[in-house]
Amino acid sequence: MPVTGFRRSVARLFALLAALSGAPAFAAETLPPGGEGAFLGELPVVLTGARLLQAQRDAPGALTVLDREMIAASGARDLAELLRLVPGFQVGQLSGSWPLATYHGLSDQAPRRMLVLVDGRSAHSPYFLSGIEWEQIPLAVEDVERIEVFRGSNAVAYGANAFLGVVNIISRHPADTPRWRFKATEGNDGISDRTLSAGFQSPELAARLTVSRRQDRGLLEIPDARRSDHVDFRAELPLGPRDWLEVFAGLSRSRVGVGENQSETDPSRRRHIDLGFAQVRWNRELDENNHLRVSLLHQTEEGRDHYTLTNPGDLAALPFPVRVVVDYDSTITRNEFEVEQTLGGTSPWRMNWGLNYREDRLVSRQLLGDRSPFTSRYLRVFANGEWRIAPDWLINLGASLEDPNFAKAKLAPRLSANYHMTQSQTLRFALGQAHRFPTPFEKRADMRFYAESSLITEPGLVAQSYRAAPNLEAERVSFQEVGYLGEWPQWRTTVDLRLFRERVSAMIERRVEDRILLLDIPSLSPTPVPIPAQTAYFDNSVSPTLRGFEAVATYRPGLRSWIQIGHSQIHIDASANDPKADENERSAPRHSSFVFAAWDLGRGVQLSAAHYRTSGFGWSAGPNGRLDDTHRTDLRLAYRFALGPSRGVAALTAQSLEGPYSDYRPTQEANRRLFATLGFEF
Fold it and tell me: Which are the contacts of 152, defined by CB distance < 8 A and separation ≥ 6?
């Protein structure tokens, strides 16, 4: 977006604010008491902005909230799909088992500039390029209570991985879980999902156990069928009048198709991924304004993916058989400790502070060059404060100090000021800085492939896909934003506007260099055989600037009826010395929008629809090509009914009514999908 266009958008925003400022202020007593009116009249309370429970109008940044009714009405089978309903996000599929979601572009096949939390546990994996492993999150969509998306950098509250945004997935409390719940989904493309959940509540314990399976044949014309089995457990145990314990545990087992049909170097095969975690959180109310929480997490992930190639690629010309063993097997162990204290209640100020220590241990011969374990350690100290300096002004101030491997600590500060123009309208100004540290793979990758044969004395190096970049530095983002939030409960309407500028310095980019490797075959040739190769590595030579505008308007006359319209406009200016400037500048769509609507037709019937439009763009760092302008329409018809002591829902969902579409590579399409769901709870 040219500067004049950006200024024009600013002018339009403030013109709209001037017009809205004459709207009547909200008075709580005008709402009808009790029932749905009272529910809709409450101002939303969020946690993700500053790790403090705040009204959305008091948060230090823009937040999108998807509640349980919206999640169900979307018809989504996977968590990543739901981010299509958040302005500024791009969602795609590398394969049927590898969903992608990124905020504001600048991403490849492993988006790693935003953080995904599941009940406070990071879903960010240190494996390979270190993105979000959506398929390994052992949480059924049916168990999600709400999703809070912080649109903007929030390393202040959650650390370096929250570089450009945070997706906070909050599961359903076990005390709010039916005793039994069953759901089955069947559809085309091999869709066959099952969810079985059991809940238990007593004065001494509230617990939920869910077992689920997601299964389908993936995308068109590639071997990416998947079957993922998940077990999720959550419990809460009171330990006394001021203490309680939260327990989270989960298992995930995925069998997914990877590779390509008839490929010499990346053959079609099955990858096995197993993940298990256990997390315990002890909570204590020291007094009514003083809360202490201590959390411990242990997680282990094992991947199994190995095979042998015979005379692949440039080795096909050799007059004798050569084997290349490819071993992507890996084991990842994570241990994490966090302590957090929240202070202040009715006083003009509140704050929280805490300390987080995380240790990731990675073993992968293929990725790191040997089988010796590599350990990453992160220590972080954070503090966030909220200060109401006047009835109409609220200041949020925070900072986080993070030290990777006790080498070079980085400070991430943030300051925001919220001005409540009226009871229903808020202006927000925010600025700050954050860092993203290189992942273990970005800094230490050493992917070598060796040829073995009876005619070769020692295994010979024939390819090196990645090499290490030991001098890689942390990325830095400096951001400024102006936001507006209008909340009119008497009209059941909210309007959320955001103008932003994000300057990313020393951005980590993938580069490729041409090399000649020499294979020594004494019995065949007195001189080594040259083999052409390309080796990738990472460097810090790029500093793009992102400018844009996001808007969401919601009209919600009932709990199960609403219409929501979202739009985002993003312009990326790549640095002059960026050899991939065109890729980076088109890595986010210039314009994207959605309409999400639901109607309660009465007698238990609900009709919902979503339409998404995205201007042409291309995911960066890969020969993926540019996607054309795309649009997709989803439709869902649901019927809720009672059957004896149980409640049920029957639904029919159609995704991509227009037919197959591409959201990652132009040559790779997702099919239109139609599936039926039947669920009971009692």
Answer: 61, 62, 164, 165, 430, 479, 481, 498, 500
Q: Distances in Å between the alpha carbon of 655 and those of 75, 117, 667?
A: 8, 27, 20
Contact of 392 with 417, CB cutoff 8 Å? no
With CA atoms as reference, report the closest residue to 296 among 350, 337, 256. 337
CA 214-216-217 angle, 5° bins:
155
Q: Cα–Cα distance between 188 and 192 in angstroms, integer?
A: 9
Which one of 122-126, 163-167, 577-581 scores highest in mean pLDDT? 163-167
Does residue 97 sit in helix, strand or coil? coil
**Max Cα–Cα distance, the chain, nearest Å:** 93
Q: Which residues pair with 90 in a beta bridge?
A: 102
Residue 621 above 70 pLDDT? no
CATH of the domain at 390: 2.40.170.20
The token pair at 603 is 């007698």
Residue-wise pLDDT for 47-104, tens only, equals: 999 999 999 999 999 999 999 999 999 999 999 999 999 999 999 988 888 899 999 9
Helices (H), 417-518: 440-444
Question: CA–CA distance from 170 to each of 26, 144, 322, 334, 393 (Å)?
Answer: 29, 6, 52, 21, 30
Q: Count of domains in the chain?
A: 1
Q: 């008491």: which residue's tokens?
A: 33
Say how far apart CA 630 and CA 126 lie, in whole Å.
Answer: 32
Range of the domain at 341: 3-681
For residue 19, the SS3 value is helix
Contact 338, 355 (CB under 8 A): yes
Q: What are phi and psi of 67, to 5 degrees?
A: -95, 180
**Cα–Cα distance, 157 to 619 (Å, whole number):** 28
| 315: nearest Cα among 452, 422, 162 | 452
Token code pair at residue 531 = 């083999």
Find, among 56, 4, 47, 169, the residue nearest to 498 by Cα: 56
Q: What is the pLDDT of residue 346?
A: 67
Beta-carbon contacts of 554 under 8 Å, excluding residues fewer than 6 positions away, are 493, 494, 495, 562, 563, 564, 565
Helix/strand/coil for 524? coil
Q: How many residues does the chain have?
A: 682
Residue 6 has pLDDT above 60, yes or no: no
Q: What is the pLDDT of residues 403-451, one digit of tens each?
A: 998 888 999 999 999 999 999 999 999 999 999 999 888 988 999 999 8
